[in-house]
Amino acid sequence: MSFSKIFNSGILIAVVGIVMFSAKAIMVKLAYKYEVSAVHLLLFRMLFAVPFYLIIAFYVKPQNPHKIKKADFLYILLFGFIGYYLASYFDFIGLKFIKAGLERIILFIYPTLVLLISKIFFKTTISKKQVVAILITYLGVVITFWGEVQFENSNVVLGGFFIFLSALSYASYLVGSGWLIPKFGAVAFTAYAMIVSTVCVFIHYLIVDRTSVFVYPYQVYVLGFLMAIVSTLIPSFLVSFAIKKLGANNFSIIGSIGPISTIILAYLVLDEKLTVLQFVGTLIVIVGVGVISYKKK
């Protein structure tokens, strides 16, 4: 197969993976119409996905086992808690109060948070271009968010705060787990982290909400299954494959379709509307994140 064909196939795979990831917010909003709690919905998502990750964890062995220390497994517990449990829980809570399109725009700022966290804790350097890009990104978020507040109630601010916490949790996971992935390999590490997250969700359910999970209409369980498979399991491997084909820099450029695809899906499925001001803010956010993500060879 020629390089151009490999590149093109990588683009198609990347687009499909990104759109499938973006559909998660739509499914959450659809499920909330049946008055399901955030904890129950997250529990359904994780329980449907975890059997596949258990199989993966059993068959896919760590990439460099000789480099793994006992303490590394403790870090997997930490990052599984932060990256896949805490970030998902904040996201599900936030989606109770804001539109799916706005949720994706706020989540999309996580690369800027990665830069800021790395600067604070690891003293990495932030270039002038990156500073400008961060300012552009947050200007776009403010414009988009302001356009939403104009038409909604104060719960939008609360929802936006939870989505920001979700983005912050995910960015912390990326910064902290980056040095572990080469030891375990991306597939094995993801499987381990997802298993830890499932245990965390189950413990949360037992402590906070022990009400029955068998009281919902079948649509809720179907949506939970689709979130687990269509918007979690499958796209996680599609994205990994696309990054391998295209490289991280090329993939980050294609990744900018994430907010746009969510907005389009929200319009088609949920009948969410986007004002001109909000659309301009969205484009500004995409430009800012694009500048941060792009690196010259």
UniProtKB/TrEMBL annotation:
Signal peptide bounds: none
Membrane topology: Multi-pass membrane protein
Transmembrane segments: 12-32, 38-60, 72-93, 105-122, 131-149, 155-175, 187-208, 220-243, 250-270, 276-294
Superkingdom: Bacteria
Cross-referenced InterPro entries: AA-Vitamin_Transporters, EamA_dom, EmrE-like
Keywords for this protein: Cell membrane, Membrane, Transmembrane, Transmembrane helix
Listed Pfam families: EamA
Cellular compartments annotated: Cell membrane
Keyword Membrane recorded: yes
EamA domain residues: 9-145, 159-293
PANTHER family to which the protein is assigned, alphabetical: INNER MEMBRANE TRANSPORTER, S-ADENOSYLMETHIONINE_S-ADENOSYLHOMOCYSTEINE TRANSPORTER
The protein, known as: DMT family transporter
